[in-house]
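Quick one, T. Sequence first:
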Amino acid sequence: MNQIRHTTGVRLLFASLMLGTLFTSSCTPLTVSFELFGREKNLIETVVSDDDRAMYKVAVIDIQGTIVDANLPPFFSRGGNPVDDIVARLEMARRDATVKAVVLRINSPGGSVTGSDEVYLEVLRFKEISGKPVVISMAEVAASGGYYVALAGDKIVAHPTTITGSIGVIIPTINFSAGLAKIGIVARSVKSGPNKDLANPLEPMRDSQYAVLQNLVDQFYEEFKAKVKERRPNLDMSKFGEMTDGRIVSGRDALALGLIDSLGGVRDAFDEAKRLANIPSAKMVKYQPEGSVRPRTPYASADELPLAIGHPPGTGQASAGTEINMLQVNASGLFPNSGPSASCVYYLWMADVP
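Structure tokens:
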């Protein structure tokens, strides 16, 4: 009974800490994770699969959740900037001469336009500087910005049931002006120009303002489509308009359309990476922060923290709602300010956002 009371008290304490330190940030991740007394941690290597007598390695780097270039406050940061986390692992793989290839394991609905493009360019840079091949392994979802990043790989492998595609751009907007007016609240900005309050949720949105946002969306959309054409030369161009209208497709349909190269799982991507690197065997390794739970298989998250309440350590599972752990608070979708806003432009499949 005392243990139950203690656990309940811990949960309430951390819930209070979370609510009391809520912050507002534009372009923030849709899933916000906090680590108590968080700090930058060194990455360590863990072998998750081993060919017999292997001399070389293939590094598996996870890209999970929303891809954004945004820093969380250091006191609460679990992994810091998501883009920085990915680049740090690429750099570790580049410096290790025994790592001959990389598998990027993508499980993401996308993210911001800038964050996705930064990861895309960093993967290209890694390949150019290191000469090491990169194979993409799509997990459950690799849509929109997740697919954008995948375009940087040498080969793309997806499960038949992977959800991918969603090629397009979105600027989410929400407007409260009509509802506020019904209760006698009227907002009026003092501004230097007619578009200075662009997408202000408290004032009515004018068609001319939507036109400004649409022009921005169209520009980034054309860049996305250009990269698809450049990086996927075997596309079924007769269906290019359909495959780039924002729809999602299964991995099996993506193969038929030429959006990916083959069907399979992470081990198939591992075999493809060995083939491209021209090595007969290799260890499969992951990089994890010191103090995190050691991944047991290629499917486990390399960032999971210990003592989680709700999912056993090492499962790699994430809560769809609010998860309060001994060292982690996951406030997925709980606060509107932690989600997409008009202050950011997204390559994002919105249906996969809690």
